[in-house]
Amino acid sequence: MDLNWLEDFLALAESRSFSRAAEVRGVTQSAFSRRIRALEDWLGAGLISRESHPVTLTDEGRQFRETAEEVLRMLTTSRDTFRHRAHGAGPQVALTSLHSLAVTFLPAWLMQVQGRIGPVASRVMPDNFDRCIVALTEGGYDFFLTYHHPGVEVPLGSGYPALVIGHDRLSAVARPGWPAVWATAGMPLIQYSRGSFLGKLAQIAQTQPGAPLAYVAHVNEASMAEAMKSMALQGHGVVWLPQSLVAADIAAGRLEVVAPELPMEIRLYRNAARGRALSSRVWAAAAEMAQDHANSE
Question: pLDDT: is 155 or 296 the higher one?
């Protein structure tokens, strides 16, 4: 079995199009189709329902998607660990994070930590909420950076203490001009993929007083906030996104906020069982920074 087949399959599961997935993987569509078929033959099960457009996963395909994602994540983690050892890398902090926070919040926050304790070598794995939880509890990571709202449970016990290290808001944004259309056509909503953490927060936000109630069938679906922002910028509809991710676009007039925003905390969870010296120093610095921020408010 070729590991490329796993990446091919995940690209197809995400795009639900053989042509788009082949383009992403940099191969011809015919070669891509042969590789998917080879994976199915190796497994002895059909993964793709080819009769539907866009293509859908079979029950076996949905089950195997989780397996493929976990296998690639574990292999990547092991490879990175061994490469660092081979190059004589010193101690590093291992942190997993929601994709959007890895883009917007984490880089500046790590610089602030380094300003307090000196250089910090880090290994960061951006991923979705569920896989971040697994990485923290089973995959050898020190910290998990996530959004938090009391309406969505975080399945971590007392062995995983948390700090509130920032705040953000979930904002419904659209390209300017959409509100005039809603009066007659309803609001075209770009939804998160089923089970998405931000999707759960968006459902809460949509029930707030003053939120638009007239929704038409969703026009697209994705799992990553960055991809959904691109859809909104092109005028496909309305999407709930972290305000930090769209602040520059709002300021430039490319997007506008069209509903009351949902406040969110930014939390850092720690695996307390990993009591290494570096992670303890980072945790102490994070606590000091959080307290300084609270005192300044």
Answer: 155
